[in-house]
Specification:
Elements: E1 6-13, H1 24-42, H2 47-60, E2 80-86, E3 92-98, H3 104-112, E4 118-120, H4 121-130, H5 138-141, H6 144-164, E5 182-187, E6 193-199, E7 220-222, E8 227-233, H7 235-241, H8 243-254, H9 258-272, E9 276-282, E10 287-288, E11 291-292, E12 296-302, E13 308-310
Parallel strand pairs: 3-4
Antiparallel strand pairs: 1-5, 1-12, 2-3, 2-6, 5-6, 7-8, 8-9, 9-10, 9-11, 12-13
Helix pairs in contact: 1-2, 2-3, 7-9, 8-9
Length: 314
C-alpha cells in the first residue's frame, strides 16, 4: 500500500529581521532543498534518501549555517555537526566537530552504515578519509558575512567587558541573532519516516562545543511508530529537554497529536530559557512546524501539491 509522500525542511530558527535583508534568496534556498528531496520521493525513493538530499542542498547554500557558509568558532575555525536517523530500523549516524567535509550529512549517513552511531573530531575526519570523502580547504566554507559576524560579536563583547567587566567575550552569539541549523523530515510512499540535521553550531562558540544536532533524542529522532523530528535552536536547552524523543514519547505513550506533542516539548525548552523550533512529520503525513523564536526558515511539500516556504508567521 502506498501513501502520499510528505517532506519538510528548515533552515534554522532565529532569522533575519523583517526588512533587514532580502528574503527572496532564503525562500529560493528552501525551495531548492524541497526540490532535491522531493525528486527522490517522487521516484519512489526512501525517506532517508530524501532527507539526505534535502540537507545536502542546504549545506551547499551559503546563506544557511551548515556546510559552506557555516559560522565561525571563537578560534575563527569551522566545526560542523550532522546526523541522520531511519524510522524503520532506528538506525542512526552522526558526526561532530568535523572541519573539512563539504557535506557532513553525507558522512553521517555513512556512519549509519558502520558499527558506530557518533564519531567526532579527528576520528570522524579519519573515518571520512578511509571512506573516500574529499577534504575541502578551510576557504571553501568561508563567507565574508560569517567572518564579519564573528568579528562584530567579539568586538562588541570586548568593548562591553571593558566598560563593566561583566560579559564573557567568548560567549556565543545570542540565538535570536544567528542563522541556524538546517534539517529535513520525510514520510515516503512506503509509509517510512526519516530525519536529518546539519549545523555549523553557534557563532563564537568555544572550540569543541557540541549542541543537540548530532545527539539522537535531542536534535533528531525518527520512529515509524510515531514521527520524525529535526530541531533547531538553543542546543544546550534542547539537549536538557531531550526534545526530539520527547515528541515521540508524548505521541507513543500519551496518545498526543503531532502538533500537541511538538508544542509541549518546545514549551519545556522555553521554560528552561531556550529558544528555537522543530519540524516534524507523523506516519499519517501530518506536519508540525512550531517555533519559539523571532521566526524559522521552513518549507514543506506533499505529493501532488505546490511547495510552500515561510520565514515568519505569515
Amino acid at each position: 500500500m502506498t501513501v502520499p509522500y510528505t517532506l519538510a525542511v528548515h533552515g534554522g530558527a532565529g532569522t533575519i529581521a523583517r526588512g533587514q535583508a532580502d528574503a527572496a534568496p532564503y525562500h529560493a534556498g528552501l525551495r531548492a532543498a524541497l526540490a532535491a528531496g522531493e525528486a527522490a520521493l517522487a521516484q519512489g525513493g526512501s525517506a532517508l534518501d530524501a532527507v539526505v538530499a534535502a540537507v545536502r542542498a542546504l549545506e551547499d547554500e551559503p546563506l544557511f549555517n551548515a556546510g559552506r557558509g557555516a559560522v565561525y568558532t571563537s578560534a575563527a575555525q569551522h566545526e560542523m555537526d550532522a546526523a541522520v536517523m531511519d524510522g524503520t530500523t532506528l538506525a542512526a549516524g552522526a558526526v561532530a566537530g568535523v572541519r573539512t567535509l563539504r557535506n557532513p550529512v553525507q558522512l553521517a549517513r555513512t556512519v549509519m552504515d558502520s558499527r558506530f552511531v557518533l564519531l567526532s573530531g579527528d576520528g570522524a575526519e579519519q573515518f571520512a578519509r578511509d571512506h573516500g570523502f574529499e577534504a575541502m580547504p578551510p576557504g571553501y566554507f568561508h563567507t565574508d558575512h560569517r567572518l564579519a559576524q564573528l568579528h562584530q560579536l567579539q568586538n562588541e563583547a570586548s568593548g562591553t567587558m571593558q566598560m563593566d567587566h561583566a560579559p564573557d567575550p567568548t560567549a556565543p552569539l545570542d540565538e535570536t541573532r544567528k542563522f541556524g541549523t538546517v534539517g529535513a523530515v520525510a514520510l515516503d510512499s512506503a509509509g517510512h519516516l526519516a530525519s536529518a540535521v546539519s549545523t555549523g553550531g553557534m557563532t563564537n562558540k568555544h572550540p569543541g562545543r557540541i549542541g543537540d544536532s548530532p545527539l539522537v533524542g535531542a536534535g533528531i529522532y525518527a520512529n515509524d511508530q510515531s514521527c520524525a523530528v529535526s530541531a533547531t535552536g538553543s542546543g544546550e536547552y534542547f539537549i536538557r529537554a531531550c526534545v526530539a524523543h520527547d515528541i515521540h514519547a508524548r505521541m507513543a505513550y500519551a496518545g498526543a497529536t503531532l502538533e500537541a506533542a511538538s508544542q509541549a516539548a518546545l514549551a519545556e525548552v522555553g521554560r528552561l530559557g531556550g529558544e528555537g523550533g522543530v519540524i516534524a512529520v507523523d506516519r499519517q503525513g501530518n506536519i508540525a512546524l512550531p517555533y519559539i523564536s523571532a521566526g524559522m526558515y521552513r518549507g514543506w511539500v506533499r505529493a501532488g501539491e505546490v511547495a510552500q516556504t515561510r520565514i515568519f508567521e505569515d
